[in-house]
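Notes to self after the Tuesday call (sharing in case useful).
The group wants a holo model before anyone commits to mutagenesis around the pocket. I volunteered. Ligand is magnesium ion. Logging inputs and output together so the record is complete.
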Amino acid sequence: MSQITREEVAHLARLSRLALDDAELDGLAAQLDVILGAVAAIREVTDAADVRPTTHAVPLENVTRPDVVRPSLPRDAVLAGAPQAEDGRFRVPQILADEA
Amino acid sequence: MSSTDLTRRTAAETAAAIAAREVSAVEVAQAHLDRIAAVDDRVHAFLHVDAEGALAQAARVDAGELSGPLAGVPLALKDVLCQEGIPTTVGSKILEGWRPPYDATVTARLKAAGVVLLGKTNMDEFAMGSSTEHSAYGPTHNPWDLDRIPGGSGGGSAAAVAAYEAPLAIGTDTGGSIRQPASVTGTVGVKPTYGGVSRYGLVAFSSSLDQAGPCARTVLDAALLHAVIAGHDPADSTSIPLPVPPVVEAAQKRDITGLRIGVVKELAGEGYEAGVEARFAEAVELLTALGATVTEVSCPHFGYALPAYYLIAPSEASSNLARFDSVRFGLRVGDDGVHSLEEVMSLTREQGFGPEVKRRIMLGTYALSSGYYDAYYGQAQKVRTLITQDFTRAFEQVDVLVSPASPGVAFRLGEKLGDPLAMYRQDLATIPSNLYGGPAMSLPCGLSDGLPVGLQIMAPTMRDDLLYQVGGAFEAALPAPVPSLSWES
Amino acid sequence: MTVPYLEALQEFEPVIGLETHVELGTNSKMFCGCAAEFGAEPNTRTCPVCLGLPGALPVVNEKAIESTVRIGLALHCSIATWCRFARKNYFYPDMPKNFQTSQYDEPLCVDGYLDVEVGGETVRVEIERVHLEEDTGKTLHVGGATGRISGATHSLVDYNRAGIPLVEIVTRPVTGTGERAAAVAKAYVAELRDLLRGLDVSDVRMEQGSMRCDVNTSLGRPGEPWGTRTETKNVNSLRSVERAVRSEVERQAVVLRSGGRIVQETRHFSEATGTTSPGRSKEEATDYRYFPEPDLVPVAPDPAWVAALKAALPEPPSVRRKQLVTQLGLSENDSQAMVNAGVLDLVLATVEAGAPAAEARNWWLGHLAQAANSAGTSPDELAITPAAVARVVELVASGSLTAGLARQVVDGVLAGEGAPDDVVAARGLAVVSDEGALGSAVDEAIAAQPGIADKVRGGKLPAVGALVGAVMKATRGQADAAVVRKLLLERLGVSE
Ligand SMILES: [Mg+2]
Ligand SMILES: [Zn+2]
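Result:
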């Protein structure tokens, strides 16, 4: 049985901001199907049901820093890597969608 | 002394010679730069060589401004760690030309220790791969056989060490990216305890798994490097606030009498090459002969480590790699005054990322999606707990666990490129330690068909010293094989 | 065709909900040491962490955790014993990592309430959650006619604000308010603002964006399930909160009456028209793909520490208000006038900042109330703090400012020229009592009005007032009138 449809792959590509072309979509749909088939084994692990998930390999808690100001980067260094900058700011092309 | 001799020395020998003023750090650096110039067009371990910076740092050591156990020793830095002002690409087109405005903590500690940074090494793009073939800048070649892969993702670091371009290198290990390259290049590679080495400035692939560690030709060299880079860092919230385990002392102990060693039953059989299993069996015999008590141990959930890893790591990666969006740094494609920002972001990511990276971003986006989260990402995190419990129970019975580091020897370039699952299976034996967080080492245990085989040692968290104790004793009894480098002549 | 608000609420029952974002007044940002300050040059308060550069990692600001717990306690919430940060994944250029480090199913504080007074009655607004997250950068849209996103040719991003700690306070749906819905919404936000000010966790300046509200509104017919809600984003003044509810009620009533359906959507509030308009919707529902933030470890507030914070909370604003009114001996009429004008808390805060009660009252019921009125805003949204008013009062008391100059200083502060002392310096408004400097103005006044000068010389002393007025006018009010009078009399050879 197929794990993932081409439409789902196209949706994932939009969520991931990847402008995949048709051939790539087809290829990825097939590859993801195979990979998802392989990782589906994880769903067989029935003794996982009552287990607490591990999100962190180290059992640390409450790691914080004092509320102290440290120097920021010089603005030249901040903007040096920018594809485009203007008036001390990062310049981007026109934005279509509103903020979520 | 000839420059060949300088490059053949261990890091410990080189550091001692420099400290004794038998040789200058500048001479050592120059010898390695010459070596890189001579062989790297064939090995392609480096993406960037910083001759000027290396010589300047060496001069500071010679001037007595910097000192320490590794002062003046050259090192190759995996291109996933930020070095201020030096190109850092992570093997990706999307970061081509980017020069970080800051040093990773590991980089800063190396500089402060007087280590001489030669340059940045090649890697699978964003550390996703087991062959270095997924580098956007072309593959690295295994010094044992240039037609073969040097492992990955840290193939550049391992190959640089194996080809005598550097006595030391830094790798990073998310699912085996230090140990599998070490295994197939006949070098020593260590993934420290997660949280033992700061991740600050390490370009993230999978935050809960990534860990930087040493690559070297000897166990002691690896330990010396481990001691320089490890230790608590307040800039990394997951950094463990405890003293570094006594790795250097352990490496020098060379005694494992009475140590309890467990052979992991599940890390054998199907998927492991016969030659690898044969060398591993001999290694186990040798450990017994050295006075260790060897028993078989079962870790029943290890079989699910690979699927758990291939859900957790891509999920975290899909989020970590979202910042590569053409706004603040890196590549921008399609900014023609017509395309919107959304389109420019999508075009940039489409062209800037290679196929394996896109595959994993898509997989991770899927696994985190509402409706699939519980079945995939959530379930994988639970399996991670079970794997951790397997380790915890095993370490109630034994002090360390052993297995082959990699299921096979170095395969041919191109052999597995069309089959992602075959590539993923290279990490069968290394992934469990990443999911658990404990330290693990690969060190040479002989050859199969003339190619190196790696022995993996796994220890409990923050017992990195045990790796070095076992590794040091094993290496003393069975010195690492030396590559012929016949392609040089 | 609109349905008037009151008429709409005779036919439909409103449900409102408020999500309020508050920037904490910490020294440094949420996850890095950059200064968390308003108004710096673009991108000068940024570092690898808050720019989301490859490799950078966050570390939690302990003060932000403390402030959030104190807010939760002041809102009668339970404080989590263990919780985590989560990543909220979506692409937007003002968000450096393209995920927001926030909290999802494990907020720091849950299940509280805030009582508000509306029309002499107490309404309990239930709080669902209070959680901690990070603010985004600021985007400037260039090339469009309005500075808005539509029509812009490109945009410019400043990340100074990115990573400033942001507390999100979410109410449960508020039902049964009927025609008071808009007033309750406004009163809730006002009370919340006063509470946060009392906790000293934020400067809660809605006009500067350090407190921002999203207002949810729905209408349903009595006895039927709640209607579909809309979310009006970034409503940035108390007055607008009220207007946003009113306009959504009126708009939705029209749709519902004509048999239409309300679309669940994000809407924008226009200060200019007082109405909402639909946001540009995406073609697909967003899936934020929340998961626990692996770069941060869990937060487990120590119950003893939480208890200590609780014990040290200040009195809530309602109690403090009553105490102060009594202490200052304000009459019932006085305090009622101040409540009606919406300045009671401002007066009290000005007194707390050191001004005499009478002066504070006069400023807020007088010049400042007028200023608010002519600006079409409420007094608490004026760009002047009670502390600044107290400073002006102090300058007058010390003789550095005359009453006229003080009004000019206040107008300067309102115009965004800085703190009172900055305005005094920049506008050169200090009282001039230097006799040499006034001499020429005095001579000119005498020369310009020889008839009046003669009258004074002739012994008609009260006539000197006209000359004093001329000098004051010539010096734009900066002269000390007593000194001017003395000088004039000297020059005219008259003694008192
Ligand atoms: Mg929020
Ligand atoms: Zn910062």
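Two things stood out.
Chain C has a mean pLDDT of 90.
The pocket of zinc ion (ligand 2) is lined by residues C 29, 32, 34, 46-47, 49-50, 163 (CB under 6 Å).
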